[in-house]
């Protein structure tokens, strides 16, 4: 019997407006009651029945979430609900009063193209006035945006499968877009409040000597820093929306393609991820390049008596902070949403009820699928955006500092090199995406090739081209008359970074793919119970921190040594190229970031496609293809998390160095070392380490509390509606979506504010302590120690959480292939328990720490003047 076949008559449909959703202008419609088949009137069909159902309604309804907020919510008539093709009310979100969206919708296509053309011309003119290099960067980025739009059109041209598939997809899309609007509405309010605080802080801080000599006043500095912060926050939000927009439209097309061949489904998912990856990286480079060009033109850089080009990168720190601020809350909110729904769905559905994953009888299944988009796609797009923005800005700051220390005549090559590298990233990643074709002839019932191997072939194409492009860029931009042949050393630094990226991908795959021993050992431990599964997973996670730390250590030392021996020296003859060498290594590691994000977004798209296939009851052969893609997606998500923490570690090292350079610029005194033998400085380091653990605790606990509500709700629906298990009643999916959304928005605030406020509070407190005890620059020094220890602890904690969670997930997948008893066995139940423990590790706390360690560095860059005497 097909689930929910036919039309239900005599329903009573109630609409609940959750207070936390209504406060941000979003209304959730949910079917809260469906009468049992034996109690309903005779069925009818067609439009007349649907109109009759819409005319009914009434009564009162108060949910547990209503009680939690202290009051019952207003109810609306069933006529205001949205109905699917079978007459069912479906969960939809309605956005109210968005003036920007109304203006855009009122314009025709020609007007939009005209506005876009004018904006492009203005941007290119700004770039050309700054430098031909910036002009070329902007031109290539715009071309890659056009190519990304081509990928989107190619994906959207694919069919959406059966009507049942489309209904499930529409519910997922409505839920994801509604939560995104609500979440980012909350984030935007916090961003506006913080922008006011930043403006006030900069109004009371003195400019650097160079800025003061160029005539930049406090008001000007406050205005441009606040503007940069808001621009970074806006672009980061756009990056998150792009990641979510494509995933909620590609999932059903991947499911439709899986009805034909596995290779076509793989290609559709990969190109959808490619659209997201290329758009995010292009927007990052465009944002930084345009802001740099704008400041150069506004302040007359290059003319006598005006700001020197070496000092312009310091004006960009607000952009990086804005990107980090939004990415942190996006990752927290999205991570809490996706894992609370996932844990609740698995514990009750799989373990207690014994139904398959993504079974349509599970009331939390739509919330789980929505969470894949808002957590794994939207949040990851914002995460990568701020990673690249932070790395580019810190490298530009170090490049400008190197130019001043070495007394070089031509500064543009060192300062603009990061922008050129990431422009090449777009080109090589596009080539890698196009190299994965859809020519395989394997059908649904034939053996298929390993999708991960196919994607790695595309990654190999990108890396090969990146090496060629990186070497060419080093020769053209980093060959300096003052240090002949130094470009070879910096090219070596880039190779170190590329090798580090590949090493991280391989190490993470080894510890999280069930093809290898570590994950299989967790699956084997599941045969003896839930406890041994947890012990094995924790042990694997702890072990997995060793190899990545060794790789990072070798990479930093090698890059620093290559930079030091490049021949660049200061006026006293001392080598000074080491820090810039580590910056070049970080650029090398991120030189294929667009393709890595492509593989990352592939994962949740494939996961959603599997859910759509399961809920629409497609043939088993189709489900086998989506299961294969889903398993590969778990591996790609895990490997890209390893890549992300590796790049975050190197980027945080750069940001730490940039912070020390900024303190030196403001004070006019050297600030090159931090003495942790000073008690206050050591305490600052201890507090930094503690912050990482407390932050992780808040994130995991938030998932736990939210998941408890979902578990109780799913149990209640199974108990109160026994017809759900026999397909005679339809679960209330929208109610679970509403509960998880409200909880995620509430729970993301505490860990986010902890991360933002802690470094500022510590810097201010120890500034006062230094003033009282007569210790010069104590506030700035303690913050440096805080930042250093938080980075080290964060790297280790993130590695543990990411790898342990990924290993638990794939151990469950391995058991579901038939190992150790397969689905429904005691080993499978233990593996599901391990997976639920690992869910907040790998998808909430772990990825949030990636953002945390970079946001701590960017906030100290922006707030550095507060810590100075």
TrEMBL record:
Signal peptide: none annotated. Pfam families: H_PPase (PF03030). It is a multi-pass membrane protein. The keyword Translocase applies. The chain crosses the membrane at residues 111-128, 134-156, 187-204, 224-248, 268-300, 312-330, 411-438, 458-478, 490-511, 576-597, 643-661, 681-700, 753-772, 778-801, 851-868. One of its GO terms (molecular function) is diphosphate hydrolysis-driven proton transmembrane transporter activity. It is an enzyme of class 7 (translocase). Keywords: Ion transport, Magnesium, Membrane, Translocase, Transmembrane, Transmembrane helix, Transport. This is H(+)-exporting diphosphatase. It comes from Pyramimonas obovata. The lineage of its organism: Eukaryota, Viridiplantae, Chlorophyta, Pyramimonadophyceae, Pyramimonadales.
